[in-house]
Amino acid sequence: MLIDKDDSPNSSSLGQTAWRVILVSFGSILLAEMGDKTQLATLLLSARAQNPVVIFFGAAAALISTSLIGVWAGAWVARWFPPRWIKTAAGLGFVLIGLTLLWGSLPIAS
């Protein structure tokens, strides 16, 4: 029996899911990286070196490397801990960072 490509239940939904994940990761990283210290450092390096192509390839290689480390670390953590625990730990970490920053800005902390 031949199965038509359109009849397979996962072919279309798997492709849509992959594109959705690609677009969400691209959009969130793009927005997170805009105007941050890495972009400003790249701008300054490019202005100083007067060789934007070399700076671009160096910066691109660095960002790819950090993303690769993040993906590998995320995959490793996901093998050992349920997603709910990871989300909870990340949320608690952000709350702790926020409280630390707030405490440091209070007049009684100095």
Map the helices and strands.
Blueprint: H1 11-33, H2 37-49, H3 52-80, H4 83-105
Helix pairs in contact: 2-3
Summarize the structure.
With 110 residues, the chain is mainly α. It has 4 helices and no strands.
Descriptive report:
This protein is mainly α and 110 residues long. The chain has one domain (23-109). It is 80% helix and 0% strand. The chain has 4 helices and no strands. It has helices spanning 11-33, 37-49, 52-80, 83-105. Helix 2 (37-49) runs antiparallel to helix 3. The longest helix is centred in the middle third of the chain and has 29 residues, at 52-80. It is flat and about 50 Å long. It starts with 10 loop residues before the first helix and ends in a 5-residue tail after the last helix. The mean pLDDT is 85.
- Give the overall average pLDDT: 85
Shape: flat
* Strand portion: under 5%
Low-confidence stretches: none
- Total domain count: 1
Task: Tell me the total number of β-strands.
Answer: 0
Number of helices: 4
- Strand count, sense and closure of the main sheet? none
The N- to C-terminal Cα distance equals 77 Å
Fraction of helical residues:
over 70%
The radius of gyration over CA amounts to 21 Å
Structural class determined from secondary elements = mainly alpha
How are helices and strands ordered from N to C? Answer: HHHH
